[in-house]
C-alpha cells in the first residue's frame, strides 16, 4: 500500500473527527472508539491511515497505544488553499461594494 497523502487521509469524515478529538490531547484507541458508532478495529484502521499520512503519532503506554495529533502535515493543505485566497478576497470586495451601494440609497 502506498503512503496516503494528507488530502486522502482528510477525505474521510471519521478521520477528520478523530483529528478534532485529538486536538484536546492524546487519547487511547478505546477512548476514541467510544465516541463513534464504529468498533475499535475500524477506528484503529482510520488511525493507521492518519499515522501513515503523518497526521498522528503513536505512543505505547503499557498495553495501550496513545495517539497524538501532529498538525505539521496540515501545512500542505494550508499551502494549497492559499492559492485560492484571492477568489475569496474578490468575492468579499464585491460584497462590500454592494453593501456600500445599498447604504447610499
From TrEMBL:
It comes from Corallococcus coralloides (strain ATCC 25202 / DSM 2259 / NBRC 100086 / M2). Signal peptide: none annotated. Residues 1-92 form the HTH arsR-type domain. Gene3D superfamilies: Winged helix-like DNA-binding domain superfamily/Winged helix DNA-binding domain (1.10.10.10). InterPro entries: ArsR-like_HTH, HTH_ArsR_DNA-bd_dom, HTH_MetalResp_TranReg, WH-like_DNA-bd_sf, WH_DNA-bd_sf. The lineage of its organism: Bacteria, Pseudomonadati, Myxococcota, Myxococcia, Myxococcales. This is ArsR family transcriptional regulator. Keywords: DNA-binding, Transcription, Transcription regulation. One of its GO terms (molecular function) is DNA binding.
Amino acid at each position: 500500500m502506498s503512503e496516503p497523502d494528507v488530502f486522502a487521509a482528510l477525505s474521510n469524515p471519521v478521520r477528520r473527527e478523530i483529528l478534532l478529538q485529538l486536538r484536546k490531547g492524546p487519547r487511547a484507541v478505546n477512548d476514541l472508539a467510544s465516541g463513534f458508532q464504529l468498533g475499535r478495529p475500524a477506528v484503529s484502521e482510520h488511525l493507521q491511515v492518519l499515522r501513515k499520512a503523518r497526521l498522528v503519532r503513536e505512543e505505547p503506554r503499557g498495553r495501550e497505544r496513545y495517539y497524538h495529533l501532529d498538525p505539521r502535515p496540515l501545512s500542505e493543505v494550508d499551502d494549497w488553499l492559499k492559492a485560492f485566497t484571492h477568489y475569496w478576497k474578490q468575492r468579499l470586495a464585491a460584497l462590500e461594494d454592494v453593501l456600500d451601494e445599498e447604504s447610499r440609497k
